[in-house]
Each structure stands twice: as structure tokens, then as C-alpha cells.
Amino acid sequence: MSIRVEGTRSEAEAWKRNSRGREARERVIKFFLTACAYLSIFTTVGIVLVLFEETSRFFLKVSPVEFLTSTQWAPPQGEFGVLPLVYGTLMATVIAIAVALPVGLLTAIYLSEYAPVRLRQWLKPALEILAGVPTVVYGYFALTFITPFFRDNLFSGIQSFNAVSAGLIMGVMIIPTVASVSEDAIYAVPLSLREGAYALGATKRETATKVVVPAALSGIVAAVILGISRAIGETMIVTIAMGAQANWLGSPLEGMQAMTAYIVQVVGGETPRGSVTYESIFAVGSTLFLMTLALNLASYWFVRRYRETY
Amino acid sequence: MTRSNTKTSRQEGSGQDFKESVSNRYRLDRAFTWLVTGASLVGVVVLALLLIDVVKDGSSMLSLEFLTSFPSQVFPENGGIYPALIGSLWLLGLTGLISVPLGLGAAVYLEEYAQDTRINRMIEINISNLAGVPSVIYGLLGLGIFVELLAPVTGGGSVLTGALTLSLLILPVIIVATREALRAIPDSIREGGYALGATQWEVIWSHLLPRALPGALTGIILALSRAVGEAAPILIVGVSLYQTYITRSPFDGYMALPTQIYDWISRPQEVFQNSAAAGIVVAMVVLLLANSFAIWLRSRYQQRS
Predict the structure, then answer these.
(1) What is the pLDDT of residues A1-14, one digit of tens each?
(2) What is the ipTM of this complex?
(3) I want to staple A79 with a disulfide (CB 3.0 to 4.6 A). Which of A74, B40, B73, B252 is the partner?
(4) Which CATH superfamily is domain A69-309 in?
(5) Cβ contacts (< 8 Å) between B259 and chain A: which residues?
């Protein structure tokens, strides 16, 4: 807009009048924009510092060896072995992936290879809406619908809080993640590979499962890793539906506590700052952060790999 | 390596594959078509079941009074979500005010200004990593920085603290969406601006941002609706589970919809479960509308460009 206004004046005058002010303004704006981008670095540094500070205080009171190897988790009794919480998290994650991997991958195949264009235009947004459902809602559904359903129809001995319901619903929650990342990878497979397969007499299914999927494998692996990372970090479903009792090597039909659930449940109990229990949530947080960081970096690496291939 | 593996397995497999009769292969094909179609419907079916379930459970509580009353411990059947609704609106507004300018700024820098240097590549990897950090970790960050360290500025567990925490959480999403929108603008637009003597910022402000806005807006709405639906981080940075006043300033305490729902779910009495379901219905209606609008906006924008 401003350019047009300047054009109506004598051009030379317009340039002279503005050039200095404009340069200064450009510099100020660029500085502000740079600061916005650097904020992300500060966020990461902030996360690491906060976690490190409180975790190191925790380790002054509890030995790291006990934290990482003991199978007793009972903060009121001063028992801080993180393994039962890790077990709870992994149990829910394994169940979730057992749902999300096949369903997500088959959905991705359907979307990119089978779905008519019009249907695809409806299904993809529906998946996005599924991804946008607040996790408390999934938690409610697992607790008040899935668990009673299991109790009445499949496992009569199931506890009101249990890993199966929480894990299954968490699987539904991460279907969109697995589906959309794998679909990107499947979509990136060149058409010539499919045509080659058809030319050799392969059917559509054979092309999809024996040519397209193997070619997109690194992207699919990335999708699954990302899904695992989501499941490990998910909080409200496991807090609501899986329970608040650490349970080392319990069965999936029993209640157990996940790492994320412990953090939320302790904070909700208004633990005083400076107590070892308060510091323990940061120690658990650090464990969680390192696990998801490793998975995210691995996923990033796999995505880059398939981008380079094609 | 994968490619060579694929090749050999295909060669080994092919002999057997073609031994099977053609009719058998086509039968398998039909079964597979059903399988993938069914799989793609799983999510939609669960979503539908979930909606039916909460509407059924919540219908007894749903009324206009439910929207305009305070929650009640004594007469739970008369309780409502008014303070939580207002608190969530505060969170939405403040989070938008904080995260949108910062996110647009970072995206413009990375897409339009940044050279391919080490530090900029680091920022990029860092942002994609931040997008994968669990929301509870952002809660712990908010607890350490905004609640404890910056308590004199933020007032401790205030709605401002909640909004700052949620802003950090959704910034990566906004940045990624805006960058994609900026990247989709052809260079000729930029060059045209420069040819007329405009500075870089003038080109960005008058040409690039308006064009990128619809695409960015989709990402922003999806991110904000995610922020409003989050319970874990604000539980950590001190959302009230019960308060008798309405949030009137950024430094007040606040309640929020998802945490109010969580509080109701965690009570054993049946009536609170119905309140939780009614709260979920309200939250889902708002979020479904916002998300559908965002998706509609993008599809319109994609058709045009």
C-alpha cells in the first residue's frame, strides 16, 4: 500500500526521504523476527535447565542407581525406583501401538492407493478432527465405556482402572499421527514403481503391499516411532483410565501408574516445593524427556532418509 | 540398504506369488480392499461411538443453566461450567495474543531472512523436536519458569502463566504451518515487490503475509484448539479445580474446561460423571466447530491457489 502512495510523489524525493528511516526500520524488524526464532532455542534450554536443576537436587537425596534399578515406587515411604512407572508407560504404549500400527498403516494405504478422491477429501479431515479431540475426553470414554464393555463381555476380572482400556483408546488417539506420516511417505513413492509392478502382472494389493509399502518403509518406521513417542508422552488418558498405583509387572487387566500420570497426580496433590516428592516429578520428567527426545531424533532421521531417497 | 533388501525379497517372493492361481489372487485382493476400507473407518466409528456415549450420559445435565452456573459440591445436579468456560476463553485469548505474533515472526525469519547457517539449521531441528516434547514437560517448564522464577511478573499460578505455558507448547505448530504457507508463495511475488523498490519487510507485510494468512490461519486455529483442550500442562502450572469467582484479569486464578471435566471424572458419584459428560459435549461442540472451520478454510484456500 505505502509503495503506491510514494509513487504519486516525485520519485527522487520519495527515495531520499525514506532511505535512511527505512533502513533503520528494516534492521529493527529483522532483529525482532530473529528474536522470535531464537525463542525456540531458549525454550529448549529452559526445559533442560529446569529439569536438570530439580533432578540434580533429587539425586542428592536419592541415588541414581536406586532410581534406575529399584522396582519399588512408593514416594510416601521414600521408595523411588522408577521402573514400575516405566513399566506402566510401556504397557500402555505397546497396547496403543498394537492398535495404531496396523490400523494407521492400513488407513494410509487406503487413503493413498484406494480411496476415491471425494471420499479422501472427507476422510482426511475426519482424521484431523480425531487428532483434535481433547485427551480428557478419550480418558472419559476409556473409563466409562470401554472398561465396562470389557467387564461385561470379555474379561470379567478387569479392574476399574486398567492398562487395556487406556492403551486401546490411546491407540485410537495416535491413529491419525501414524496414518498421516505414513501416507506422506507412501505418497512420495514414485508412480513409476507402481506402474512397473502392474506391468509385471501384479495385482493392486500385491503392488501396495510388496512394492509401495517396502519402498516407503523408512517413512513408515518414522511414523511408528513418532506414534510411540506420542503414546509415551500422553497424559490424561492414562491419568484417568489407568490408575494411580505403581504396579511392577502387573497384568494389562490391572491398574498401573504411568510416568506422566504420576507427574499430574502428584502436582494435583499440592506437594510442597523443596520436598523430595516434588523433586521426584522432575526426575520422572527428565526420564520422560530423554525417552521422547531419543525417539523424536530417530524419527527425524528416518524421515530425512526417505526424503533423500526420492 | 533398504532398497537392495527390497529388491532381493521381491525376487525371491515373485516365483511363489505367481504360482498362486489368478482367481485366488484376486479374491485376496478383494479381501484386502475390504480390510483397508474397514481400517480407515475405525477412527470415524470410535469418534461416533464416543459422541453418542457422551451425549447419552450428559443429556440429563445439559441446559442453559449448565453454561451459566458455578460448579457445586453441595447440589451437584445444579452445578455448571460457567467459571471454567470463562477461564478457557481467557486462556484462548491470551494464548492467541502471545503465540500468534511470536509464531508468525519466527516463521517469517526462518523462511524469508535466515541464511543456511549452522545456527539456523539448529533452530529448525530444534523446532521440530519441540513439537514432539510431551505436554507435561511444558507444564514442568512453566512450573519452573513462570510459576516460580517469574512469580513477581506473572503472579504465580495465574491465567497469564497458563497462557504463557500453552503458548510455548503450540508455537512449533504455528511456526511449521506458517512456514508452509510462506513457502507456497511463488518467488515472482517477492521479485515483483523488490523490482518496485520495496524493502524486504514491505514485501513481507504487504504481499507475503496477506497471501500466507489463510494457510497459516488453519494451523493457528488447530493449534489454539489443541491448547484449549490441553489439561496436563495447566494442571501442573496451577489451574484451580474450584473457585468461587470469575477470572477478571490476567493475574487472577482461573478454571478451565478440560480440567473441570477431569475433576468431575475423578469423583466417584454418578451425578459428577453426568456433569463431566455434559462438559465434554460443550467442549466437543466448540472444538469441532473450530476445527471444521479451520479445515474448511484450508480447502477453500487450496482450491484457489
Answers:
(1) 444 554 455 555 55
(2) 0.89
(3) A74
(4) MetI-like (1.10.3720.10)
(5) 136
